[in-house]
Amino acid sequence: MRFPKLFERLATLAPLPAEEWVKAEAVAKEQSLAKRELFMRPGDAADRFAVVLQGVFRGVRVSPRGGESIKAFRAEGELIGAYAEMLQRLPSMTAIEALEPSHVLVFQTQDFQQLEQGHVCWERLARRVAEQHFVLKERREQEFLELSAEERLVKFWEEHPHLKGRIPQRDVAAYLGITEVALSRIMSRRRKRAE
Amino acid sequence: MRFPKLFERLATLAPLPAEEWVKAEAVAKEQSLAKRELFMRPGDAADRFAVVLQGVFRGVRVSPRGGESIKAFRAEGELIGAYAEMLQRLPSMTAIEALEPSHVLVFQTQDFQQLEQGHVCWERLARRVAEQHFVLKERREQEFLELSAEERLVKFWEEHPHLKGRIPQRDVAAYLGITEVALSRIMSRRRKRAE
DNA sequence: CCTCCGCCTTAACCCAGGTCAAGCCCAGGT
DNA sequence: ACCTGGGCTTGACCTGGGTTAAGGCGGAGG
């Protein structure tokens, strides 16, 4: 087994026999990405995903009107990929970019479907993953519905302390749905209030 | 089989043997709700869900600061329940209220888990449901990130034409994340622009 | 060493949407 | 027919965040 820590992490989501994980490792490929390099670009087929072994990524959606907004950041142990597009069998509308020199473990969805044929554990795992992603998105929805930009900022750092210092401010702003300028103002306002 | 149309609908999501559906019908209970009656209230255990047979519901979250925001509307053929809370085994933080005299088919999650033990089809169906809910939430997230309230309004009616006339304006506003006043202004602005 | 560039801040101005308050319309109840 | 109350609109005023544009600052390359 090449990635025992990853195996343990997945096994907490759903019962996962070690043999099955070994099969999965066999079809996965490691990939290294330089800072700023894209794991996926808009227009690509959404036919693969990866687990982050090392590094941080941002999922960027470039809107028709030019602006970029950020759907999520992903660090060690988390999944990257155009998940919604994969589920809908659409080409990716998302760019996934390394914010640091990174290292990931890539799966083709096709290979993953093979694994599903072989053992029910994968079906269950996929379910858990979908459910967890749902919970995260619903939490975010809630934040947009009832919190101000400032409150969202505070929550962001509470929930993602491990990203401190690893992502540029402008990306935090794009994640919160505001501009870099507004974020800067909010921070200076808080600084003043704090003294 | 008591609900053949529902069976057909579910069968489009994942292969579902008719016998399994009959078993499910056996553990489900029909329930009628008056207008304004709650299917679930905040604090309730999130241990059941239902399919809407007739009527419309709104999922309301009452925030600590008193305001209510609306997570979703659900009409015929759709699921109601405190899904995120159920997945996290938390008590419901959501009120689910009938906006019309309604009729639903209720399942206890416990009974559903029994069904899952009996046949893999339910696992697969649960996965599809989770995935579809995820896609919907992500779409909504996108709308908050890149659209104005007015654009969100237009999209809302494009995506939910069947709700026309069945839900009060203030609820549409609470769904869009704005006040009833702002919604009214937006609508009058569009009316003027249209002549 | 200086310059350039990427990232952040600050300031001036504008506008969407929030808040508060008054008023309208209409359906239901007496 | 009259009240009443719920749901919607409108107006006046305020505020958070957008836009534009001008610096500031620190690190990489000449």
Automatic annotation (TrEMBL), chains A, B:
Coiled coil ranges (UniProt) are none
**PROSITE patterns given for it?**
CNMP_BINDING_3
* Family annotation (Gene3D superfamilies): Jelly Rolls
Which CDD domains does UniProt cross-reference here? CAP_ED (cd00038)
Pfam families associated with the record = cNMP_binding
Recorded superkingdom: Bacteria
Give residue ranges for domain Cyclic nucleotide-binding: 12-115
Q: Which SMART domains match?
A: cNMP
Task: Please state what the protein is called.
Answer: Crp/Fnr family transcriptional regulator
Q: Which organism is it from?
A: Corallococcus llansteffanensis
